[in-house]
Amino acid sequence: MSDKLRLRFEKTGRAVYISHLDLMHTMQRAFNRASLPLKYSEGFNPHPQIAIALPLSVGTGSLCEIMDFKLKEETDLAALPEKLTAVMPEGIRVLEAYEPQRKVAELKWLHVEGFFEYDKRDPGEMEEALRRFFEQESIVITKKTKRGMGETDIRPGIRALGFEARKEDGQDGVWVEAVVSAQEPTINPELLAEALRQRKPEIAPDFAKFTRIETYDAGMQVYR
Q1: Domain 106-217, what fold?
Q2: What is the largest CA-CA distance in the chain?
Q3: Domain 5-101 falls in which CATH fold?
Q4: How far apart are CA 155 and CA 139, in angstroms?
Q5: What is the pLDDT of residues 158-188, one digit of tens each?
Q6: Which end of the chain has less neighbouring CB within 10 Å, N or C?
Q7: Minimal CA–CA distance to 112: which of 58, 185, 187?
Q8: DSSP conformation letters of 86-146
């Protein structure tokens, strides 16, 4: 068995409100409860060798999270998902464990689905307005960068984008489906709603939520 291992897991339901830091602690506790001792780094401040590829924003769900980890002992990878899921909080389900064949740097695109809620505006009108807005060749917004606040054109990081007026859980709104850049540049799907708030507030949603559906490489092949 390889020294480096990988998990694919879901984070849905109430678990979407677990922060990234708390999720890391949750994972560590789950491995301990499942009697799967994690390998620790060396040095003055040793820490468990686990890393989540693309940390989620609070409130965003995912069906395709990826986490790399190392164990002190060999284990049955086929049995590992069930063992870990049994000790996870509600909403976190491990789908598979395997030896990774690809580097995280090769992960390029995210398929996401979302819903824009509109309390008083007509979803059909919003759908058409959203299409027109995102057909622009450039959508420059102000966002936080490593150097502070700066202007960024998010349009090149959007590979595909579609809208459909519909109801979800009794709420009027517009369903959103998109393929956005996961890295270099990183386009958080929440920036789609933020762009509207900054550039076209009259069609910005009252509430927006997103779920990651799948991960892809630069050639749009499923990434594992």
Answers
A1: Alpha-Beta Plaits (3.30.70)
A2: 59
A3: Alpha-Beta Plaits (3.30.70)
A4: 5
A5: 999 999 999 888 889 999 999 999 999 999 9
A6: N
A7: 187
A8: TTSPTTEEEEEEE---S-GGG--EEEEEEEEE-SSS-HHHHHHHHHHHHTSS--EEEEEET
